[in-house]
Write a structure and sequence with these properties.
seven-stranded antiparallel β-sheet; alpha+beta; four-stranded antiparallel β-sheet
């Protein structure tokens, strides 16, 4: 539960271009002396705004599982700066702050030479007061504090994503349980199935009816729109023996894709093959999509996860049989 009462932090007031700003150089060592936490047209207005913004900031720290920093006094060497002791409390703003915190989430970015960031993750607080960190909708890990999330995501980017993307990975292979369920839905988690037209290779997959193999999972139609496929793979349990799905953005681009070389030359964006009930092979052209597929496979706790490269690709034909 978030609560604090009558806490005080040193600050200074400075007027610039007719506006008063309240600065907290020791509370925010990196930028507190350069950027005001609050401003106002008058000194009294600036102080009132700073009391509210300070309460919001401290509440956010506690919500993030951080401890409130100790006040650190300082001396104003600049004659334009007026030193003050800023006191605030949670209670006057409790209702507003609680409403604000309900939507609070984290963004964790990884930069290399590119701008904007190369990879981005997002964190949401769970019912256990911990933070779940997601990359492209796949849960990577759970932490207590932002610094932990940043460290672990940077490690993941540098030791998993970048090395495998540098290998010009073709795709990803992994094993799913040899059991019935809605495994295609889990495999495609994080990919907007509805955005694509799917070439349906059919093969062998069946709904489970009275604990036995029942109706065919896939209709005879060669093409499936994304909404239809989403419904098929999500709503009822089924058992997959073989599956062959290929994603295209436009119906006019759909063609038979027999191997990786044809995949590269085609407009096909994603290939999903399930062989012998548990062996899954996925190919994607977009590196971010491939990174997401990997993150999701880890989050789903699939087994024998491996990037497919030019050196280890064992599929000569893109056909599940």
């Amino acid at each position: 539960m978030i609560h604090f009462h009558n806490v005080t932090y040193p600050a200074f007031i400075k007027q610039q271009d007719g506006t008063f700003g309240v600065y907290f150089p020791t509370l925010f060592p990196e930028h507190g002396a350069d950027y005001p936490l609050a401003t106002g047209n008058t000194q009294q207005h600036a102080i009132a705004n700073a009391q509210k913004e300070l309460a919001y900031t401290l509440a956010g720290m506690l919500y993030d599982n951080e401890t409130l920093p100790s006040p650190v006094p300082f001396h104003c060497d600049d004659a334009s700066q007026q030193y003050i002791e800023m006191e605030t409390s949670f209670e006057p703003y409790a209702e507003e702050i609680n409403a604000h915190l309900r939507g609070r989430h984290w963004h964790i970015d990884y930069y290399d030479a590119n701008d904007p960031p190369r990879f981005s993750a997002v964190g949401y607080k769970n019912e256990n007061d911990q933070w779940d960190i997601y990359f492209n909708d796949a849960l990577l890990f759970t932490v207590m504090r932002y610094a932990e999330a940043e460290e672990q995501f940077h490690h993941y980017a540098e030791h998993v994503l970048l090395p495998n993307l540098a290998k010009k990975s073709r795709g990803l292979s992994f094993h799913i349980p040899n059991a019935y369920g809605t495994y295609l839905h889990h495999i495609l988690n994080g990919i907007n199935v509805r955005d694509f037209i799917w070439h349906n290779g059919g093969r062998e997959a069946y709904y489970i009816e009275d604990d036995s193999l029942g109706r065919d999972l896939f209709p005879p139609a060669r093409l499936l729109d994304g909404s239809t496929l989403q419904h098929i793979i999500s709503d009822e349990p089924y058992y997959i023996i073989f599956a062959d799905l290929k994603a295209f953005q436009h119906e006019a681009d759909v063609e038979d894709i027999a191997n990786y070389e044809q995949f590269v030359r085609s407009e096909c964006q994603l290939v999903l093959l399930v062989v012998d009930c548990s062996h899954v092979y996925m190919y994607a052209k977009d590196p971010q999509t491939l990174a997401q597929i990997y993150a999701n496979a880890v989050a789903q706790q699939f087994e024998k996860i491996q990037f497919i490269t030019d050196d280890n690709d064992e599929l000569t034909m893109f056909v599940a049989f």
